[in-house]
TrEMBL record:
This is Glutaredoxin family protein. Pfam families: Glrx-like (PF05768). PANTHER family: GLUTAREDOXIN-LIKE PROTEIN C5ORF63 HOMOLOG. Transmembrane segments: none annotated. The lineage of its organism: Bacteria, Bacillati, Actinomycetota, Actinomycetes, Kitasatosporales. InterPro entries: Glutaredoxin-like (IPR008554), Glutaredoxin-like_YDR286C (IPR052565), Thioredoxin-like_sf (IPR036249). It comes from the Bacteria.
Length: 89
């Protein structure tokens, strides 16, 4: 690997789950995020679109939305393998 390109260790990444209460897809996504982040030691947070107007305006049609380091990774359904790969590549 080139010294100019260093992968960010998983523990230095941040996963954000954007969700809303009563959303079964959000519950499913949270299960995947908890598992993958727990396995890899990646910190994660969740944000409720009903409490943040800016997030609501941007994502209300896509929730749940998963961000990795502030960039949109996926929405609706979270694929465990794809999230794991994004956090380790």
């Amino acid at each position: 690997m080139s010294p100019l390109f260093r992968r960010t260790p998983p523990r230095d990444r941040l996963v954000t789950l954007i969700r809303k209460p009563g959303c079964h897809l959000c519950d499913d996504a949270q299960g995947v995020v908890e598992k993958v982040c727990g396995d890899l030691g990646v910190p994660w947070e969740q944000k409720d679109i009903t409490e943040d107007r800016e997030l609501y305006d941007e994502y209300w049609e896509q929730i749940p939305v998963v961000l990795v380091d502030g960039r949109q990774h996926t929405f609706w359904r979270v694929n465990e393998g794809r999230l794991r790969k994004a956090l380790t590549d």
